């Protein structure tokens, strides 16, 4: 039996393998899941993705399973509690950003009917299919992530630079950046 060929980063850890094989690059249209991934990508800033994946369940618990309505109402006492939570990245700026982003997220839902309707417009409503042969060909940003970053910042989001937005786009299947030799490239394409 032959083993599936995956993107090189997807082989380094069982948690990465599972994430690569089942989630990364699969188009997401559920608002709560989109919010979760945007928050986790922002939490990753300056860290490795494996660090955030290992803390993912703690994030879900700490942030009410990414219920934006609840998070938008967090007060100073809740922030203090989160800063003491060893299961998450205890960075005051990142924690404050989650609350601010939840408020901005809710405003987008109100204006557009869903966050999904707003965020997917940056790729014209359908995944962008790339055909990359090597990891060195995968960019850190793209014109779409530049536009997304600018749009989100204009609406009050923080920790949404173009690199974070591009990682988010890859994670939620807005772009297919699985390498062409990877078994997932065709599956999510």
What do these coordinates show?
- The structure is a single chain.
- This protein is mostly helical and about 190 residues long.
- The protein has one domain (about 10-189): Endonuclease III, domain 1.
- The protein is about 55% helix and about 0% strand.
- It has helices spanning about 15-20, 30-45, 50-60, 70, 75-85, 90-110, 115-120, 145-155, 160-170, 185-189; strands spanning about 130, 175.
- A two-stranded parallel ribbon has the order 1-2.
- Helix 2 (about 30-45) crosses helix 9 and helix 8 crosses helix 9.
- The chain is globular and about 50 Å long.
- The mean pLDDT is about 95.
Q: Estimate the helix proportion, in percent.
A: 40-55%
Beta-strand content bin: under 5%
Whole-number tally of structural domains: 1
pLDDT below 50 for ≥5 consecutive residues: which ranges?
none
Element order: H for helix, E for strand? HHHHHHHEHHEH
CATH topology: Endonuclease III, domain 1
Chain-averaged pLDDT: 96
What is the 3D shape?
globular
- Which strand order does the major sheet show? 1-2
**CATH superfamily label:** Hypothetical protein, domain 2
The CATH class designation is Mainly Alpha
* Alpha-carbon Rg, integer: 17 Å
* Biggest sheet statistics: 2 strands, parallel
Secondary structure tally, helices: 10
The CATH architecture comes to: Orthogonal Bundle
Helical/strand content category: mainly alpha
Number of strands: 2
- N- to C-terminal distance: 24 Å
